[in-house]
């Protein structure tokens, strides 16, 4: 099994790569979990997020956005006092704020899934050269979605963070073309090939 040159043998990460990362996701609770893990990750590393994932789920009621939207100061203090939790009041407040914004999108569009996937017409995007290992930190699509989310009140969701989410939830397939996951995802879901657009900080992972 190829691991897209993630450079790890940590089972948490290899399982995440094989079973979740890049698989088109159409579940709103799952979308919210992925998004908020990206929020918590800002300035830190993804390995830490995966190790703390169960702590996040415990703190945030398994990322049930309806419950989180009703959180009060008492909940913030509870979360801050949880052993192993990231002690960032601003990030915790952002998750609560984002749950309320998330609910508004669901009210307007019927689901967050419909809102987000409309940006790609419901298809997984295969960008030119990405399968060869040339991966950006952000691009024109993540710029557009980030701008719209911010307009709707979301916090901690800049273009780089949004791009990471689009990779994770399968709107962009950034597995290497020699990775079995790349072919498996493309064979099971509708895809569209696009040219690279407004890519920033491209790195080679080949």
Based on the model shown, name its key terms.
single chain, 206 residues, mainly alpha, two-stranded parallel sheet, two-stranded antiparallel ribbon, 11 helices
* Cross-sheet strand order for the largest sheet: 1-3
Backbone structural class:
mainly alpha
Fraction of residues in β-strands: 5-15%
Query: How many distinct helices?
Result: 11
Main sheet? 2 strands, parallel
Task: Give the rounded overall mean pLDDT.
Answer: 95
Shape field: globular
Q: Work out the helicity level.
A: 40-55%
Query: What separation lies between the terminal Cα atoms?
Result: 15 Å
State Rg: 17 Å
Number of DSSP strand runs: 4
**Helix-strand pattern, N to C?**
HHHHHHHHEEHHHEE
- Spans where pLDDT lies below 50 across 5 or more residues: none
Q: Can you describe what's shown?
A:
It is a single chain. It is built from eleven helices and four strands. The protein has helices at 11-19, 28-41, 46-51, 53-59, 65-68, 73-80, 89-109, 112-117, 140-151, 159-168, 180-188; strands at residues 124-127, 134-135, 191-194, 203-204. 51% of the residues lie in helices and 6% in strands. It has 206 residues and is mostly helical. Helix 9 packs across helix 10. The radius of gyration is 17 Å and the shape is globular.
């Amino acid at each position: 099994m190829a691991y897209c040159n993630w450079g790890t043998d940590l089972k948490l990460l290899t399982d995440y790569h094989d079973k979740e990362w890049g698989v088109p996701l159409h579940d709103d609770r799952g979308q919210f979990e992925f998004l908020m893990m990206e929020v918590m990750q800002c300035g830190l590393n993804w390995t830490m997020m995966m190790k703390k994932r169960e702590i996040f789920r415990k703190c945030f009621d398994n990322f049930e956005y309806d419950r989180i939207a009703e959180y009060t100061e008492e909940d913030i203090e509870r979360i801050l006092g949880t052993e192993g939790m990231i002690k960032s009041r601003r990030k915790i407040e952002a998750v609560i704020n984002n749950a309320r914004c998330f609910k508004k999108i669901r009210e307007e569009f019927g689901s967050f899934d419909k809102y987000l996937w409309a940006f790609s017409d419901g298809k997984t995007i295969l960008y030119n050269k990405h399968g060869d290992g040339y991966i950006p930190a952000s691009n024109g699509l993540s710029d557009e979605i980030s701008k719209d989310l911010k307009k709707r009140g979301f916090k901690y969701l800049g273009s780089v963070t949004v791009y990471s989410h689009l990779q994770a939830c399968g709107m962009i397939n950034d597995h290497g073309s020699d990775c079995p996951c790349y072919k498996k995802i493309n064979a099971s879901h509708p895809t569209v090939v696009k040219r690279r657009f407004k890519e920033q900080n491209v790195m080679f992972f080949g």
